[in-house]
Write a structure and sequence with these properties.
The structure holds 2 protein chains of 2 kinds.
Chain A: H1 39-54, E1 61-65, E2 80-83, H2 89-99, E3 104-110, H3 111-117, H4 119-128, E4 132-138, E5 141-142, E6 148-149, H5 173-179, E7 184-189, H6 193-205, E8 210-215, E9 260-261, E10 267-271, E11 278-282, H7 299-311, E12 318-322, H8 328-339, H9 347-352, E13 357-359
Parallel strand pairs in A: 1-2, 1-3, 3-4, 4-8, 7-8
Antiparallel strand pairs in A: 5-6, 7-12, 9-10, 10-11
Helix pairs in contact in A: 1-6, 3-4, 5-7
Chain B: E1 13-16, E2 18-26, H1 31-45, E3 48-54, E4 69-77, E5 90-93, H2 96-102, E6 111-115, H3 121-127, E7 143-147, H4 149-156, H5 164-168, H6 171-182, H7 188-197, H8 202-221, E8 228-231, E9 239-245, H9 246-261, E10 265-269, H10 276-283, E11 290-294, H11 298-310, E12 314-319, H12 321-337, E13 341-347, H13 364-369, E14 379-381, H14 387-402, E15 405-411, H15 412-416, E16 418-422, E17 442-443, E18 449-450, E19 476-478, H16 493-508, E20 517-518, E21 530-535, H17 539-551, E22 557-561, E23 563-565, H18 571-575, E24 580-585, H19 590-599, E25 604-607, H20 616-634, H21 644-655, H22 663-667, H23 675-680
Parallel strand pairs in B: 1-8, 2-5, 5-6, 6-7, 10-11, 10-12, 12-13, 13-15, 14-15, 21-22, 21-24, 24-25
Antiparallel strand pairs in B: 2-4, 3-4, 9-16, 14-23, 17-18, 20-22
Helix pairs in contact in B: 1-6, 2-3, 4-6, 4-8, 6-8, 7-8, 9-10, 9-14, 11-12, 17-20
The chains are: A alpha/beta, B alpha/beta.
C-alpha cells in the first residue's frame, strides 16, 4: 500500500476502472437493530444510496462512530469502520483522516455522544477543519440508556433522571458549530429523504469539516413530536397568520433564493437595516434576506440558527454555512511533504547527530 | 570516590576518578542549560556521565526564594557509573537561596563557588537567612570561593549592547566557563552550541560566548584558584557515542522502530510534564516521516493514535500519570480491537497533580490493572536514560508482532537525566515490520472468500490487520465483544469467555527473554543469599549499591526487570533460589505485590517516595542490613527487623503504642518464616 506512506497525492480514492459500486456493495449482513419507526433506518438507507453515488469505493470509505443508538450505524455499512467509545469518534477519525488523504472519513454521532461527553472533540475537529463528514443524529434524548434528557432536550423534559422536568438549557448544535468556526454547517430532517440526500451530498463535496445535524424524533422515548413533513403548496389550515405555527414546517434554506415560508410564502426572514439583526417579516418585504451560505462572516448564519428559538416553531433546514478554507488534512500533508522533499530522512544521521564522538576499540 | 579529595594546594591538573558537581540557582538562572552543557563537555572528553536535573513545578517561582531553586547535578567519572552521585563534591550556588537549599547535601570539605552579587541584604532575606552565611562561620567545613560572577559576566559582555538585566543573565555561562576550566574541559562545543542556539540573536549569542570565555580565562588567571582537576576518559566499548537524555532516547527509539517496521510513526499527544519533551522531539522530525499531532486532550491524543494505527501508522501516545488515567477507556478499546499501539508513561509523583517535576514509580499498578474488564496489556520499563532507545524499540516490536497496545514506563528521573549512549548501527537494529492482510483468509457458508479479522496466527495469536484502502477486506471493529474469527458483534456467553481467555493467552505468550542475574559470586543457588530485584530507573542506584556492598566483601545478586507483563518465564525459579529477595521501589511496594501475586514468593520491600532517586549509600546500607540480618538470624541472635526508614519509624511508633502497626510495616519486614522461601532454599 503506497498510501500508507502518505504519498498518495490523488484525491479521495475512486472506483475508476471497476464496476461502479451499488447499494448492495455498501450493505452488510449484520441485522439492523433499531426500534421500528426510528429515523435511523431512513438515514442508513439514505447513506447506502448516497455512498455509491459519490463514486468512492467501499474500501476507501471509513465510518467512525461513538456510543449510542446512532453509533451502531457503521456495522450496517460495508466499508471500513470503527465503533469506538462514547464521545470520542472525532478523535479516532482525525487520526485516520489526517494520515490518509486517500480516504473518505465519516463520523456518525448523536446528541449525547457529540454534545455531552464528546463536546470537546466535536468543537476541536470543527475548529481545525479536519476533513470529516460529521452526521449528528439529534433525537433530543438518550435512547440507548432509556430516555434521559440530553443536551438538546427542551427545558422541562421529563425522563427517568428528570422526573420533575429537566432544568438545563439545550444546545443549539448549529450555533455551537458556528461558534467553533465550522466551515460547513447544515441541518436536515430524517423524514425528508430528498432533503437529507441533498444535504449529505453537499457535505460530502465540502473540503474540510462538515457538520450535518439530522433532526429526528425517538419513537420509543418521544422526546419531541415527529416533525410534520410539509408538502409543497399544502395549505396550513390552523393558523395561517402565525409564522410560529408548527403547521408551516421548517423554513427551507436555498442558496441564492429569498428566505420565505408559509403556504403562500407569506412570511420571510428580514434583516433590520439599522441593527443587522434577523427577524420574521412578510414575504413581500424588500428587506427579505437572500440566503448566502458562502458568507464568510458567520454572524449571519448564527442569526439564522438562533431565529427558531424566539420566532419559529422549529428551526430552518438546509445549509447554513459553506465556506472554503484549507482543511487541516491538506495543511498537515503539505507540511510533511515540505519536511521531506526527498523522501524519508536518514535514520543514521539522526541517531548520530552532530555532537557524537568516537571511542576507538 | 575521588582518588584524591579536592584540596586547596596543587600544581597542575590533579586526576580524579570521579566527581559530583551540582549547579544551583534561581529558576530563571539557566541552571538546566548550564548543567546540560557541562555534561555534554564531559561526555565529549569520554567521561562516563550521569545527571540529575531537579527543578520546581512553577515556571518562575518567586525569584530568590528557596522554592524557586533549580539545580542540575552531574557525576562524571573515568569508569562505568550508573548514578548521578549521592553527595556533590562541588556546589555552584548562584544566589543565597541556592546555597541554602543545597549546602546540607554537600560533602564536608567540598568546594562551594558562589555568586556574591546576590548576597545582599534583600537576597539573604528572600532566601530566609538571618545572618550572612559568608560571615557566620557556617561554611567553615567547605572550601568557599566567593566570586562576583554576575559582575564579571556583565563586565565581560559590556561591549555587546545588552540591557543591564540581559547582561547579568550571562552569569551562568561565566560560571560554566569557570567550572569548565577547573575540570580541564574544553568549551569549543559549547561555543558552537551557543552560536547555533542564538543564531537569530547575534548580540545575545556574542554575549554568551564572551561570558563563557571570560569565565574560563578568569579561572586560568585568578590567584584564588590554584587547582585544576582532570577526570580521564572512561574505558567504553568501541563505537560512536552521544550524550543522551532519557526523553530523547525514547523519541529516537520510536523513530527507529517505525523505520525498522517500514511504517510512518504517528504520535498523538497532549502536553504534560515530564513527557512533553518527547512530543517536542518528535514534532521536529517530520523529515524522518514522523507525524505528530497535538490533540485537544489526553483522550483525543490516544484516540488519534489508535485511529492512526487503524490507518496503517505505528501509533504512539506519550503522557504521564494523570494522562494515563484519562486514557484508560481508550486503552480498553485498543485491547479489544487488537491494534498495535505504544503508550509511553513518563511517571511523576502522584496521586493527582502530585509532584509534577519529580520522579516516582507509582504508576505500575495503574499500568498493570488500570482498566475495566479483563484488559491485559504488555508492560515494559525503561531502566536508564540511554536505555530509552532499546526499550522503546522493544515496546514497538511487541505492539506490532502481537497487535496489542503496550505500556512503556519511564519516569521523570530517566526523562531528564542523561548519560553516554552508544549509537547503534542501523544495520544492527532488528527488522520489526509486519505483513498487512491483502487477501481474504476464509470462506463464508456459501464458500465465498471473506476476510476474518479475528482469525489468529497459531503461534502468536495475533490477528490479521487489514488497513482501509485494501479492496475486498472491508470490516468493522469496535468496543463491543467480537465473535471469534468474523469479528462480528457477539453477545454469546461462550464466545465472550473464549475471547477473554484468548486475549489473555496472547499476552501471556509474548516472547520475552529470561531474567538474568548479575552475581560475580556465582549463579542462582550457589552465589549470594540476597537478590536485589528492581524495575525501571532504580537500575542505576541498585547496581551501584551492589558494587559497594561487594567491594566491602559481601555477596549480593542483582536482577532487573525490563518486562513486567509478561514476566520472564524463569522468574519464579530464579527468585526461589535466594534466601531473601529485596525489592527497592520508589512507591509503597507495587512490584513486590505483583511478584507475590505472580510467583507466591514474599519479598522484602524498601520503599521511598521522596520524588528523588535512591542514593547509592542508602541502598548499600539497606542491602548490608538485609545480609547481616540473615547472618544474625542463622546464628539465632536476632529476629525480624524492619528495613528502611519508614519501616523503622512505623515499628518505633508501634512499640511506643503511638499507632497501630500498619500493614505496610510487615511488607517492609523480612518474613523469616515464609514457607515458599524456605521451600526454595
Amino acid at each position: 500500500m503506497s498510501t500508507v506512506n502518505g504519498k498518495a497525492e490523488e484525491p479521495v480514492g475512486g472506483t475508476s476502472g471497476r464496476r461502479a459500486p451499488t447499494v448492495a456493495d455498501f450493505t452488510t449482513g449484520q441485522e439492523v437493530r433499531w426500534c421500528p419507526g426510528c429515523g435511523d433506518h431512513a438515514i442508513l438507507s439514505t447513506m447506502r444510496g448516497l455512498l455509491p453515488a459519490l463514486g468512492v469505493a467501499p474500501e476507501n470509505t471509513v465510518v467512525v462512530s461513538g456510543i449510542g443508538c446512532s453509533s451502531r450505524l457503521p456495522y450496517y455499512l460495508d466499508t471500513y469502520g470503527i465503533h469506538s467509545i462514547h464521545g470520542r469518534a472525532p478523535s479516532f477519525a482525525t487520526g485516520i483522516s489526517i494520515n490518509r488523504p486517500d480516504l473518505s472519513v465519516w463520523v456518525v454521532t448523536g446528541d449525547g455522544d457529540a454534545l455531552a461527553i464528546g463536546g470537546n472533540h466535536l468543537i476541536h475537529a470543527l475548529r481545525r477543519n479536519v476533513n470529516l463528514k460529521i452526521l449528528l443524529l439529534n433525537n433530543h434524548i438518550y435512547g440507548l440508556t432509556k430516555g434521559q434528557a440530553s443536551p438538546t432536550s427542551k427545558v422541562g423534559t421529563i425522563g427517568p433522571s428528570s422526573p420533575f422536568g429537566s432544568l438545563d438549557n439545550p444546545f443549539n448544535p448549529i450555533a455551537l458549530a458556528l461558534g467553533a468556526g465550522a466551515t460547513f454547517v447544515a441541518r436536515t430532517i430524517d423524514s425528508d429523504r430528498r432533503h437529507l440526500t441533498a444535504t449529505l451530498t453537499a457535505a460530502a463535496a465540502h473540503k474540510g469539516a462538515a457538520l450535518v445535524e439530522i433532526r429526528q424524533g425517538c419513537p420509543t422515548f418521544s422526546a419531541i413530536p415527529r416533525q410534520p413533513s410539509r408538502a409543497a403548496g399544502q395549505e396550513s389550515p390552523a393558523e395561517p397568520d402565525n409564522p410560529a405555527a408548527p403547521e408551516h414546517g421548517p423554513i427551507r434554506l436555498s442558496p441564492g433564493l429569498p428566505i420565505v415560508f408559509g403556504a403562500k410564502e407569506q412570511w420571510g426572514v428580514v434583516r433590520d437595516p439599522s441593527t443587522g439583526e434577523l427577524g420574521i417579516g412578510h414575504g413581500g418585504d424588500s428587506r427579505v434576506v437572500v440566503h448566502d451560505p458562502g458568507t464568510q462572516n458567520s454572524t449571519y448564519a448564527y442569526g439564522l440558527a438562533r431565529l427558531a428559538e424566539t420566532s419559529l416553531a422549529e428551526p430552518p433546514i438546509g445549509v447554513y454555512r459553506s465556506v472554503s478554507q484549507p482543511s487541516f488534512d491538506e495543511l498537515y500533508q503539505e507540511r510533511l511533504a515540505t519536511a521531506r522533499p526527498d523522501g524519508r530522512g536518514d535514520l543514521r544521521s539522526l541517531l548520530t547527530g552532530s555532537d557524537s564522538w568516537v571511542v576507538a576499540g | 570516590m575521588p582518588t584524591e579529595q579536592l584540596s586547596e594546594r596543587s600544581e597542575g591538573a590533579r586526576r580524579l576518578e570521579n566527581v559530583v558537581i551540582r549547579f544551583a540557582g534561581d529558576s530563571g538562572d539557566g541552571m538546566q542549560l548550564t548543567g546540560d552543557r557541562f555534561g555534554a563537555q564531559a561526555a565529549a572528553i569520554g567521561n562516563d556521565v550521569a545527571t540529575l536535573p531537579n527543578y520546581p513545578a512553577e515556571i518562575r517561582a518567586p525569584a530568590g526564594t528557596v522554592a524557586g531553586v533549580s539545580s542540575y547535578q552531574l557525576h562524571i567519572a573515568d569508569h562505568d557509573i550508573r548514578t548521578p552521585g549521592d553527595q556533590p563534591d562541588v556546589l555552584i550556588a548562584m544566589n543565597p537561596a541556592a546555597l541554602k537549599a543545597n549546602v546540607a547535601e554537600l560533602r564536608p570539605g567540598g568546594v562551594i563557588i558562589l555568586d556574591t552579587d546576590s548576597f545582599t541584604v534583600l537576597g539573604l532575606e528572600k532566601a530566609g537567612y538571618d545572618i550572612d552565611p559568608l560571615t557566620d562561620g557556617s561554611l567553615d567545613a567547605f572550601q568557599v570561593h566567593a566570586i562576583n560572577l554576575t559582575g564579571f559576566a556583565a563586565a565581560a559582555v559590556a561591549d555587546h549592547n545588552l540591557k543591564r538585566k540581559d547582561a547579568a543573565r550571562t552569569k551562568n555561562m561565566f560560571a560554566l566557563g569557570l567550572v569548565s576550566w577547573m575540570f580541564s574541559q574544553q568549551i569549543e562545543d559549547t561555543i558552537a552550541y551557543l552560536q547555533k542556539r542564538f543564531a537569530s540573536k547575534p548580540d545575545v549569542q556574542a554575549a554568551n560566548v564572551s561570558a563563557l570565555r571570560a569565565g574560563w580565562i578568569y579561572g586560568e588567571t585568578t590567584e584564588a584558584f590554584a587547582n585544576v582537576y582532570e577526570v580521564k576518559p572512561a574505558p567504553l566499548p568501541a563505537g560512536t557515542y552521544r550524550h543522551m537524555k532519557g526523553n530523547k532516547a525514547v523519541a529516537y527509539g520510536l523513530v527507529a522502530a517505525a523505520h525498522q517496521a517500514a511504517m510512518p510513526l504517528f504520535l498523538g499527544a497532549y502536553p504534560i510534564t515530564p513527557a512533553s519533551e518527547i512530543l517536542h522531539e518528535l514534532a521536529a522530525l517530520a523529515s524522518n516521516d514522523v507525524r505528530s499531532f497535538q490533540a485537544e486532550d489526553e483522550i483525543a491524543a490516544i484516540g488519534a493514535a489508535i485511529g492512526g494505527s487503524y490507518a496503517g501508522m505505528l501509533g504512539v501516545t506519550v503522557t504521564s500519570g494523570p494522562g494515563m488515567a484519562l486514557k484508560a477507556e481508550a486503552l480498553g478499546l485498543a485491547v479489544i480491537m487488537e491494534l498495535p499501539l505504544v503508550i509511553v508513561n513518563v511517571q511523576r509523583g502522584g496521586p493527582s497533580t502530585g509532584l509534577p517535576t519529580k520522579t516516582e514509580q507509582s504508576d505500575l499498578l495503574q499500568a498493570l490493572y488500570g482498566r475495566h474488564g479483563e484488559a491485559p496489556m504488555p508492560v515494559i520499563a525503561v531502566r536508564s536514560a540511554a536505555d530509552g532507545f532499546d526499550a522503546a524499540m522493544e515496546a514497538a516490536r511487541i505492539a506490532l508482532a502481537y497487535r496489542t497496545p503496550v505500556i512503556l514506563l519511564s519516569d521523570a528521573y530517566i526523562a531528564n537525566g542523561s548519560e553516554p549512549w552508544r549509537v547503534p548501527e542501523v544495520e544492527e537494529l532488528p527488522f520489526i515490520g509486519i505483513d498487512l492482510a491483502t487477501e481474504p483468509n476464509g470462506v463464508d457458508a456459501d464458500g465465498n472468500p471473506i476476510f476474518l479479522p479475528y482469525a489468529r496466527d497459531p503461534v502468536t495469536l495475533a490477528r490479521p490487520l487489514a488497513i482501509p484502502g485494501t479492496p475486498g477486506l472491508t470490516h468493522r471493529i469496535g468496543g463491543l465483544e467480537k465473535a471469534d474469527l468474523t469479528g462480528a458483534v457477539s453477545y454469546d456467553p461462550d464466545n465472550h469467555d473464549l475471547m477473554i481467555r484468548t486475549r489473555q493467552s496472547k499476552i501471556d505468550g509474548i516472547d520475552v527473554p529470561p531474567l538474568e542475574v548479575d552475581d560475580p559470586s556465582g549463579p542462582p543457588g550457589s552465589g549470594a543469599d540476597v537478590l536485589v530485584i528492581g524495575w525501571g530507573s532504580t537500575w542505576g542506584p541498585i547496581g551501584e549499591a551492589c558494587r559497594q556492598v561487594r567491594a566491602e566483601g559481601m555477596k549480593v545478586a542483582q536482577a532487573h526487570l525490563r518486562h513486567i507483563v509478561p514476566l520472564p518465564a524463569n522468574l519464579a525459579s530464579v527468585l526461589s533460589e535466594y534466601h531473601t529477595v529485596l525489592v527497592p521501589e520508589m512507591n509503597l511496594g507495587q512490584l513486590a505485590g505483583h511478584l507475590r501475586r505472580e510467583t507466591l514468593i514474599d519479598t522484602v520491600g524498601y520503599n521511598q517516595t521522596r520524588g528523588m532517586p535512591f542514593r547509592t549509600a542508602e541502598l548499600a546500607s539497606v542491602i548490608t542490613r538485609v545480609i547481616q540480618g540473615i547472618d544474625e538470624d542463622a546464628s539465632g541472635a536476632a529476629g525480624t527487623k524492619p528495613v528502611g526508614d519508614v519501616g523503622a519509624r512505623l515499628a518505633a511508633m508501634s512499640e511506643a503504642g503511638a499507632a497501630k502497626p500498619a500493614a505496610r510495616a510487615s511488607t517492609a519486614t523480612a518474613n523469616q518464616h515464609d514457607v515458599t522461601r524456605e521451600a526454595g532454599r
